[in-house]
Amino acid sequence: MSDLADRLASVDAEIAATARAAGRERRELTRIVVTKFHPVSLVRELAELGVQDVGENRHQEAAAKAAELESLALRWHFVGQLQRNKARAVRAYAASVHSLDRAALADALHRAGDALPPLDVFLELNLTDDPARGGVDPDGVEHLTEHLLTLPSLRLRGVMAVASPGAEPRSEFARVRAASERVRAIAPDAVAISAGMSGDFREAILEGATHLRIGTAITGKRSTPG
Ligand SMILES: *Cc1c(COP(=O)(O)O)cnc(C)c1O
């Protein structure tokens, strides 16, 4: 088995074991492999190993990879900060946007999607005090949820978050679960929780995550930080 196949199998085994320990079904969980900074050849290899969901955080890189791998049945998840003027281009290849954090971006994505099937979006929470990190402030969750429900070309799946650096992951994901409940009080169908990365996906599963965004634990080290 290649190193990549090995790492994928070992992460998947941990996901399954953690789900079992949490009394959850493995099929409730979507494992997204974050391939940013890795070459198209690695994404192709992942596809050959049966991976269907891949994540990217930069529009130019994502668009180039999606175009080159158009013939493969991959779902592209956009997980990075997104500028409004890229909304149309991102809708052309993305199955979902996990980083929806403001009404203006939602409006731009909506306007770009008249003739397209609805785009899955996750409302990104900012768990830190640093506005530069992206994500909506906890205070703004209800307002943005209500706004998203007025945009028929977007389908609000749930919330997304990255644990704050240095914080205890389990308590971070407990906060995410609480925010998810607030969203669901307004949007009952928005049950998904996109949380958990290479270092903390186990804690995320224990706190109810449904979409895991896992990079380096599967892909190996990235050549550029990010
Ligand atoms: C890079 C990235 C990931 C994956 O990070 P790893 O630590 O490599 O697993 C997940 N989510 C987002 C938003 C990212 O930018």
From TrEMBL:
Residues 41-221 form the Alanine racemase N-terminal domain. InterPro entries: Ala_racemase_N, PLP-binding_barrel, PyrdxlP_homeostasis. Keywords: Pyridoxal phosphate. Coiled coil: none annotated. Gene3D superfamilies: Alanine racemase. SUPFAM superfamilies: PLP-binding barrel. The keyword Nucleotide-binding does not apply. PROSITE patterns: UPF0001. The modification N6-(pyridoxal phosphate)lysine is found at residue 36. Pfam families: Ala_racemase_N. Belongs to the pyridoxal phosphate-binding protein YggS/PROSC family. Pyridoxal 5'-phosphate (PLP)-binding protein, which is involved in PLP homeostasis. This is Pyridoxal phosphate homeostasis protein. It comes from Pseudolysinimonas kribbensis.
